[in-house]
Amino acid sequence: MAVGTRPYLLLATTMLLWGSGFSSSKVIVDHLPHSVVAVLRFGGGALALLVALRLSREPAVVRRRDLLRAAGAGVLGVFVYNLLFFWGLSLAPAIDGSTIVPVMSPVLTTAFLLLTRRENASGARVAGLACGAAGAVIFFVGAGGAAGGGRLRLAGDLLFLLSAACWAGFTLLGRRVLTGIEPLRATTYATVSGAALLAVYSAPAATEVVWGDVPAHVWLNIVFVALGPTAVANLLYYRGIKAVGPSSASIMMFLVPVVGTTCSALFLGESFNPVQAAGAVVLLVGAVLAVGYR
């Protein structure tokens, strides 16, 4: 296997896992409070990563500065992101999140890189950002209309947008975090720090859950999202960022809507209304122009 293709295969696997995680998480949110779902997903992922780190042969000496950077990234990319994401998922369909988060995250990442002049602002990229913004507006208008689901769905979609902004920040921090620490250790520290904050935040809601009434299929989904879309996917994503950089890694996120919408339609029976569908197409075209053209 060529060295240049391996990071993209790892990132493609990440996107497949993330895409399938939207519908699986929606199943859990329908039975448990959104804050509890967040801590179950990332608490389980943190435990899996701690075991993997224990079994690895990576050097254990880590500078305090690198530890704090990784933990700080976890506050944004695990704690804040997941509070917003699962809150949105409790209000809006999974199919909305599987479009907004993976498409807007690279758009916002690219916008930041262009505004700070870390990358070139070609005509195609600027046009793509404008197209993406227009598509997002159309999508949100469709979500807020009577045919789209009303105010609750619109509120959920706006929370998805905020979570996308958090993930963009997490992506931008990724390369800096990885300058002095290996991907597995960085991913573990970030996940553990975020999961610990989620556990504190969700404790009151967790005490009100009747755990004996949680169906078996919900527990199966919890195990899946904790191991696949969380522990494995986040580790592969950090490895991909280290190899190809945040902008190139973001391009791969366009695979997530395809997988996510397919899973939402097949397993949950969800769909877009015509206005949302048009907005999603315009948004995706704009994102490809903004992110794909250098």
Automatic annotation (TrEMBL):
Signal peptide: none
Keywords: Membrane, Transmembrane, Transmembrane helix
A GO CC annotation given for this chain: membrane
Superkingdom assignment: Bacteria
Subcellular location per the Swiss-Prot or TrEMBL entry: Membrane
Pfam families from the UniProt entry: EamA
Keyword Membrane set for record: yes
Keyword Transmembrane: yes
Domain (EamA): residue spans on this chain: 8-140, 155-291
Membrane topology value: Multi-pass membrane protein
Transmembrane segments: 35-55, 67-89, 95-115, 127-148, 154-174, 186-206, 218-237, 249-269, 275-293
Family: Belongs to the EamA transporter family.
Protein name per its UniProtKB record: Uncharacterized membrane protein
